[in-house]
Amino acid sequence: MEQNIKDIPSLQSVYKDYFPIGAAINARTIDTEKNLLKKHFNSLTAENEMKPENLQPKEGVFTFDVADKMIGFAKQNNMRFRGHTLVWHNQTPEWMFANSDGSVASREKILARMENHISTVAGRYKGQIYSWDVVNEAIADEEKVFLRQSKWLELVGEDFIDKAFEYAHKVDPSAALFYNDYNESFPGKREKIYRLVKSLVEKGVPIHGVGLQAHWNIAEPSLDNIREAIERYASLGMQIQITEMDVSAFSWEDKRTDLVKPTAQIAELQAQRYEEFFKIFREYKEVITSVTFWGVSDSYTWLNDFPVRGRKNWPFVFDANQHAKDSFWKIVDFK
After folding, report:
1. Catalytic residue at 231?
2. Is 35 in contact with 322 (CB distance < 8 Å)?
């Protein structure tokens, strides 16, 4: 039976007393998924289009066309917009760290370029973006290493993080500024993120929240670990935002590539996990200020071919035909 989008509850309406419901979009899905977006979401994030290499591929050459279109779409449909991301070790152009002759640029030149990028981008969208992922994924995954090795760390030093937040706050003091990371609910990495954010707070750096990417799956992380992470970060006076949520149909250990659609067992597990996750989000509505899916429907996800090449994934609450899945009903039927 064909499902009529008008006949199902709206996610943004169901959660209007809790938090904004967001979706990551790209240049294609803003058109192909526009009906779902208009009905269910009141917050948008650019998946890749506002990362440094896309907004400033060459020094001083800014390309705002796609980002402008996205923010215009949000305005037209009374949606809010999250900015993602200003400083990251990945998807940052090489010129940011080099002189014209190819030699390594000085700390001062790199910081000046960082400030110019942040002031130009955040300045253009001042008052139009309610929160920014200022620094993304600066914590190392290795157990005994604190900060990730990157050109930012190597060539500027640990205070590149402080500087990024200071520059962003200077240009748009009304935006909530976030540190954003993955595996944020696992105790080892959680404590390193906590240590970083605590140090920023103690230094008076203008940081307002922690972004939990929430790239979770049908097996991990545990509910207790998620609760502990939320409480740990919130204890620093931080807002919490779920910034890149998807629930993979596969555990991290599962490398199979044979499925052409999710099994009944996977669908049931995924629905259960979504139900449990959103129950936690509702419990912490006083500190959670938005929940964003890292996509719209199963018709497109970055998890296709990642981390296992040749494998499809189905991580959202709408299927590839943009129909509501059992997962959807589990997160709307809770009253």
Report:
1. no
2. yes
Give CA–CA dist 186/158, Å, rounded: 23
How far, in Å, CA of 121 to CA of 119, rounded? 6
Nearest residue to 131 via CA among 210, 66, 185: 210
Of 244, 268, 275, 286, the catalytic one is 244
Q: What is the pLDDT of residues 23-79, one digit of tens each?
A: 999 999 999 999 999 999 999 999 999 999 999 999 999 999 999 999 999 999 999
Q: HSE on the CB side for 205, CA within 13 Å?
A: 27
- Residues of the chain short of pLDDT 70, as ranges, are 1-6
Cβ-based neighbours of 220, under 8 Å, separated by 6 or more: 251, 252
Active-site annotation holder among 33, 47, 137, 166 = 137
CA distances from 209 to 55, 84, 171, 174 (A): 24, 14, 18, 13
Domains and their CATH numbers in the chain = 5-332 (3.20.20.80)
Indicate yes or no: pTM above 0.90. yes
Q: Is 94 a catalytic residue?
A: no
CA–CA separation, 200 and 198 (whole Å): 5
